[in-house]
């Protein structure tokens, strides 16, 4: 068992099965020593954990939990793309999209849900560059979408 697998076990986190693409794209793509994930929606057991606009029908706390789930899904698709969870060495970049009510301006707080779990799992190697973007709509009415770039251990 590698470092990342051990860390997940210590934290009691079970990664979800890697979600399948919902349109014409691949869930993750490897280029050299980097793995780029497509935007991951907050699916858990085939269902979105939060639908609608944050600041309207979705609370900040619900959106943070959705961002957390989307980040776990990103780890899963990256692990599937590289063939072994323990080959994921570090989180380089996170981009988070938040389906926002017109007067909602706490997108960075929402995407903290993803950042917190990535840093919890990867520890120091989980510190990453990040963007948090508000938008008026996301696919399938998801409240959040998260994409990541991971460094691959050779």
TrEMBL record:
InterPro entries: Endoribo_LPSP/chorism_mut-like, RutC-like_sf. CDD domains: YjgF_YER057c_UK114_like_1. Gene3D superfamilies: RutC-like. Residues 7-145 form the Endoribonuclease L-PSP/chorismate mutase-like domain. Pfam families: YjgF_endoribonc. PANTHER family: ENDORIBONUCLEASE L-PSP_CHORISMATE MUTASE-LIKE DOMAIN-CONTAINING PROTEIN, ENDORIBONUCLEASE-RELATED. This is RidA family protein. The lineage of its organism: Bacteria, Bacillati, Bacillota, Clostridia, Eubacteriales.
């Amino acid at each position: 068992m590698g470092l990342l697998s051990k860390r997940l076990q210590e934290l009691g986190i079970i990664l979800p099965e890697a979600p399948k693409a919902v349109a014409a794209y691949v869930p993750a793509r490897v280029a050299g020593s980097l793995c780029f994930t497509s935007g991951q929606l907050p699916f858990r057991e085939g269902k979105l954990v939060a639908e609608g606009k944050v600041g309207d029908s979705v609370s900040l706390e619900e959106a943070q939990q959705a961002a957390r789930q989307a980040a776990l899904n990103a780890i899963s698709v990256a692990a599937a793309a590289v063939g072994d969870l323990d080959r994921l060495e570090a989180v380089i970049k996170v981009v988070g999209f938040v389906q926002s009510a017109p007067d909602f301006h706490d997108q960075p707080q929402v995407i903290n849900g993803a950042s917190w779990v990535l840093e919890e799992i990867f520890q120091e190697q989980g510190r990453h560059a990040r963007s948090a973007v508000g938008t008026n709509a996301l696919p399938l009415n998801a409240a959040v979408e998260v994409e990541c770039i991971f460094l691959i251990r050779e």
